[in-house]
Amino acid sequence: MNVLSEHGFRADGRRPEQIRNISCKLSVCPEADGSAYIEQGNTRIMCAVYGPHEATNRAKASEEGCSVSVQLSTAVFATLERKNRRRGDRKTTALARMLEKAFESVIVTSLFPRAQIDICCEIIQEDGSRLSSCINACSLALADAGIPMRGVVTCVTCSSVDGRPVVDISAREEMDTIPRLTLATLSGHDEVVLVEMENRVHMDHLSALMAASHAASSSIHQCLHAALQQHLSQTRAIL
Amino acid sequence: MTSDSHAVKIVIPGDVLYPSSELRRPGKGTYELHGSIYSSLAGFVFVKEEKQRERTIEVIEVRRSEVGHDHVVPYIGGVVTARVTSIGQRFAKCALICVEETPLPGGAEFGALLRREDIQATDKDKIDLARCFSPGDVILARVISFGDNQTSFLLSTAEDELGVVSAVAESGERMLPVDWVNMQGVKTGVKEPRKVARVPKMNQLIG
Amino acid sequence: MDVRLSDAEKVFIIHGVQEGLRNDGRSCGDYRPMYVERGVLATTDGSSRVRIGGTDLLCGVKCELVECEDSSKETNRLEFSVDCSANASPQFIGRGGDAYAEELSDALHFAYDNERSIPDLAKLTLSPNHFWRLYVDIVILQYGGAIIDAAAVAAKAALFDTEIVEVVTRQADEKKMTIDLPQGHLTWKLDVKSAPLISSITKIGSTNVVDVTLGEETCSFAALWVGGSVQKAGTEPLVTMTRQAGGGSLDAASINDMIQMGVNAVGRLDAKLMERLAAEETTIPGQTFLA
């Protein structure tokens, strides 16, 4: 299957540099300190943030600052094929560790010594770019929880087809053979907090791919920025 | 003297607020980087004016709401309210309930240790821990340091104003302080020893 | 899930319930407003979302064609699974929700485990070597009391929504059967009119209450889950399951009353649910949850 048709369109009708529709809602879980629900195309993720509270993992507690603990779980009906994996498989755990590292560098952890922040993501429906969507959901939930951060992290997964960058790929495009670059930036600017590459890409195509990912991440930042502003202006009416 | 101006605008983490200068400094919910003040919270910008000697300094703050709910964690030097959960030979285990005036949310209580030598400033060797505290007591204490890996914080009550503020007698009745070392049941009048806190206002009420 | 009440607050609730009054103005036998949607998940064959008070859960049904040696020996046509998302409560982080999830899926399994609950179940057996297995998966997104009631409603609504692909069986070599797709994409639905619902009856003081809130739950002494299947519209439901849940102890004499109350509650709930399911015949697959 070709990712790009002969007229340069993708299977879902997008142009190569076009991101998927984003809609989101904040403060969806009353139990949590902060929460967010995000839809990126058909990928749907709910994220809750608890804390900062006393570290349950004593070994990780430090006087320097708080630790971040991420749990990813996937609903069994999230993909077309039913998979009974929920939590704890190696791939999911690896992704959770990457999220922890990314957010530990962004949260102003020095304000909360010996404390811990728990982030829980529930993937309700999965349609590609899972890691990116989780990061975007976590960013919104952390902002909603009022946890001090140096900026809002946004993330995008992109691919390169015959040297042409294709941004924000869906599950149909996420085939094994094509390269996948996941890039997370801070506040849509130049600071990169997470980068991951799967499969191989030719050196010559890498800079174009990076530039496209960067631009896409900035566009997503604009979306999240607008969503947060809108949410806050609604709460302001109550004040 | 401080005065709040009106909430100006809505910002999210990473937004540039103002260029920093000698007359402007970052307050809560903001941070300074490369000569600019950035927001670290999603909220509303407040500009507070603070008089320092002759000069007026602007303090930039980002708050979530007018009342300003903040996440609090215990810090060294802060006075905390704690509940005694168990008593040992050498230390009492406590669960922190409040940090200064802010109650910790339910389920987010921190554990802490009060060691025998930190109960009083004087006569440290003669103290019998069981004659100072009993499980269930609510105490005021000061955080003196971070603990080791077993506990998060170390507490001290070696000040007149710190110690037991509320206690329940063995018989289950409420007790009120009578002097520095005793509390008395409100119904039976039975006295039990405690390290009593002399909270100025509370003692006035008792008379 | 973490509601802490002082003794005085608990006494207020218990005394109120004894007078037949609850904090939100309901009487002891009333449910909170319930919202049922179906066709919410694009990746399933049937799905539903149920909200009642603070409770919010998703249910998805997936059909799987199973090949086996002898389909008459394989019993589980319906498989229930429940997952407590950590979004619902910090207690569910890690494996914290597994025990509770097990209790819920077990109760659903027993409520459905009889011939009367879904009379159509035989239709799922296609040939001596093939049958459909329906996976009913429930995810608890938010916890606000009455989870088992909501889970049973969600399961019934999702099964009602489920479309199973029509297939034809054909004789093959060595007395085996093979499965083929017929011309065109045809689907059929299970008849779930008599699928059971479950009502949790909670004992507060000496009074029985349905659909407890989190605050009321902290005052409860014990709870009884009553599963009932309505065989014919307007008749009293058949009891398909009863079990005590969440510890505590009950007076033997009061159990009859509790079961009776559960049966009544199930009867009323079932009538409302069938009305709702029949009214909403068109759904937009894959629509957004944001409403």
How would you describe what is shown here?
The complex is a heterotrimer of chains A (239), B (207) and C (291). Chain A has a single domain, classed as Ribosomal Protein S5, domain 2. In chain A, 28% of the residues lie in helices and 29% in strands. Chain A is built from three helices and nine strands; from the N terminus they run E-E-E-E-H-E-H-E-E-E-E-H. Chain A has helices at residues 90-104, 130-145, 203-238; strands at residues 22-26, 34-40, 43-54, 67-74, 115-125, 153-161, 164-166, 180-186, 192-198. In chain A, the strands form two sheets. In chain A, strands 1-2-3-5-4 form a five-stranded mixed sheet. In chain A, strands 7-6-8-9 form a four-stranded antiparallel sheet, with helices on both faces. In chain A, a hairpin with a 7-residue loop joins strand 1 (22-26) and strand 2. With 207 residues, chain B is mainly beta. Chain B folds into two domains: 2-63, OB fold (Dihydrolipoamide Acetyltransferase, E2P) (Beta Barrel); 79-206, OB fold (Dihydrolipoamide Acetyltransferase, E2P). Chain B has one helix and 18 strands. In chain B, the strands form three sheets. In chain B, strands 1, 2, 4, 7 and 8 form a five-stranded mixed sheet that branches. Chain B has a five-stranded mixed beta barrel with strand order 9-10-12-14-13. The longest helix of chain B is centred in the last third of the chain and has 7 residues, at 200-206. Chain C is an alpha+beta fold and 291 residues long. Chain C has a single domain (7-279), classed as 2-Layer Sandwich (Ribosomal Protein S5, domain 2). Chain C contains five helices and 14 strands. Chain C has helices spanning 7-18, 98-112, 147-161, 214-217, 252-279, and strands at residues 34-38, 46-52, 55-67, 78-84, 125-127, 130-142, 164-165, 168-171, 177-180, 187-188, 197-204, 207-210, 222-229, 238-245. In chain C, a hairpin with a 5-residue loop joins strand 8 (168-171) and strand 9 (177-180). Chain C is elongated and about 75 Å long. Classes of the chains: A alpha+beta (239), B mainly beta (207), C alpha+beta (291). Chains in contact: A-B, A-C. The interface between A and B is large, with 38 and 34 residues.
Structure summary:
Chain A: GO terms for molecular function: RNA binding. The complex is a heterotrimer of chains A (239), B (207) and C (291). Chain B has 207 residues and is mainly beta.
